[in-house]
Amino acid sequence: MATPSALGLLYWGRKALNVPARLPSWDRWLRRLWQPAAVIVGLGLVVGGPVLNWLDDFFLAAMLALGVAVCWQLRAHRPVLFVGLGLLPYAALQLAELLLQAVAPALLKRLGGLDNAEGLSFAWMGIFFLVARSQHKAQQADQELRLAAEQEQRAVESQNQTLEYEVGQRTAALAHQTNELRATLQELQATQDQLIQREKMASLGELTAGIAHEIQNPLNFVNNFADVSQELVTELVEERARPARDAAAEAEILADLRLNLGRIAQHGSRAAGIVRGMLEHSRTSTGERAPTDVNALCDEYLRLAYHGLRAKDKSFNATLETDFAPSLPLVEAVAGDLGRVLLNLLTNAFYAVQQRQQAGEPGYRPTVRVQTQAGAGGVVVRVRDNGTGIAPEARARIFQPFFTTKPSGEGTGLGLALAHDIITDGHGGTLEVASQEGEFTEFTVTLPAAG
């Protein structure tokens, strides 16, 4: 009977073409064909006869036709080609057998049927069904690889989107932090400018206190000589009004007047110089250098710094020592900036000796010494005091901004830092310190000579 063969073709064909997955609606009907096939086989075993042979042949033909329809539906599927090639010899043999039974049954009987040929066709069909099955598995493996690649690609894209989002969030956070840091930097710069201005105003206040005392002396001389001169003028007028004028007396009065006017001019110039120095110290530096007499500058700011401290503490006294080199060469300097440096060094020196004096050390005499001398191609200024000295760990940071050895509220920590910048950056010189704690401190300023 051909019905079992048709069922076998149905089973292997479904597997080779993956009909359950590709044509599920067709597969539902194909899975039910075993029922009529079982009836035909059962009748064939029990009854037999030509009618059942005809049903058997009809079932086989129907299976072949159904297989052709399924292959046509799945024509785009590569394994269909191998299934079709496998079915072709078997279908041709079945068609030939049906034709011979109808046209020449005697010939078919003489040939003994086509069983041998059918066996070969089954072998042929099995080989091509295996190839189709292999093709299907290969395609399924390729599909799984593509699916895996697509899933991996989607995972990568999802990860990229996540990374892009995180990068965006991080970038936004960094931008926010950058804006905060920029704002903080601007605040720090504003605060630094305020502290620098405060340091300048503090030094200006110390300078003003010294000026108030220093300028009083020449003003007193001016007032005194002006009063004496006024009296001499009165005497001269009275002498000239007398009937008998005394030429010698008039000449003596005029000589005294000339002398007094010279003294008034001298002390007026002194007062004007002090005021001019104060104005130069207080105004913003233009950065223009000019030949400067360092000896005169040191002498002026030594007295101003000393009287500035005495204006705060009337009980303070110190010995001022000067050793100014004669014929000292002029230096190219901004006088106002160089005056700020000297005022800061001298103010610190007087503060150090005052602190040691207040400690009550027996036999201690506060002394501040200023020395100038010509160096190799320049001028050297030394400011030395016998005050409290500076500890070694503090000397290493003495020129750092905002570092101070004074108690809180008595210093900003910018004075020496600004002095160092003015000397090194502004004038191309050097500023060095030597000290022994409890003994002395000496600052050495080296400036290049003019020209």
Automatic annotation (TrEMBL):
Phosphoprotein among keywords = yes
Record EC number: 2.7.13.3
PROSITE patterns in the record: HIS_KIN
Q: Which organism is it from?
A: Hymenobacter polaris
Gene3D superfamilies xref list = 1.10.287.130, Histidine kinase-like ATPase, C-terminal domain (3.30.565.10)
EC top class named in words: transferase
InterPro entries noted in UniProt: HATPase_C_sf, HATPase_dom, His_kinase_dom, HisK_dim/P_dom, HisK_dim/P_sf, Sig_transdc_His_kin-like_C
Extract the coiled-coil ranges from the record: 131-198
Q: GO molecular function terms here?
A: phosphorelay sensor kinase activity
Which intervals hold domain Histidine kinase? 210-451
Q: Which domain of life is it from?
A: Bacteria
Catalytic reaction equation(s): ATP + protein L-histidine = ADP + protein N-phospho-L-histidine
What keywords tag this UniProt record? Coiled coil, Kinase, Membrane, Phosphoprotein, Transferase, Transmembrane, Transmembrane helix
UniProt xrefs under Pfam families: HATPase_c
**Residue ranges of the TM segments:** 33-52, 81-104
Record's keyword annotation contains Chaperone: no
What name does UniProt use for this protein?
A: histidine kinase
